[in-house]
Amino acid sequence: MHVLLVFDHPYGAEAFDNVPNRRSLSAAMLAAAQTGLDSAGHSSDTVDLVAEGFDPVLSADDLRAWRTGTPGRPDVQRLQDRVAAADHIVFVFPTWWMSMPAATKGFLDRVLTRGFAFEEPRPGGALVRTLHRLRGVTVLTAMTTPGPVYRAWFGRPAQRILADGTFRLIGIRRIRWIAIDRSTQRGALRRERALARITRRFAALH
Questions:
Q1: CATH number of 2-203
Q2: What does the similarity note say (predicted)?
Q3: pTM of the predicted model, to two decimals?
């Protein structure tokens, strides 16, 4: 299986060590997932959105390309090639203001375009799936909010955007959500146990 990991954090994918003011639990989750994938013999490709200079803003040219079904900017075309090669996509990001950071939302807006990720249906019909190789999506996120509060009080907005509002609309039904909540309240041992569970889950990915 070939897995595309889409990572979004200002510190970058290398910030996985537990060093104050230079650490990212999201980066540690990415590293844990990569360890599991490697142990299972899967191939992978990591898109570090911030490090690669991805522009999340949907420009006028992007919108015209979306509406006309023509190719977008070169950075989008390169990312679409990487998406098209994936059997599974993993999004890794911190939950900020109850949702995903800007680069992840921009990835959805700019990369999953008509003519690539889906085709328009006839009036009243569902979107037509075009990403036939893609079998599933997993979301890994770190949040300070307790999980029950995120679900019951806030209505799990990032999960709903990515699952119900994006991938299920384009025909991808197999979507997993893995969160490390109360992230600032976890000691080193609880943090390592949570990361070990991620490694095991990705070692068992199929």
A1: 3.40.50.360
A2: Belongs to the NAD(P)H dehydrogenase (quinone) family.
A3: 0.93
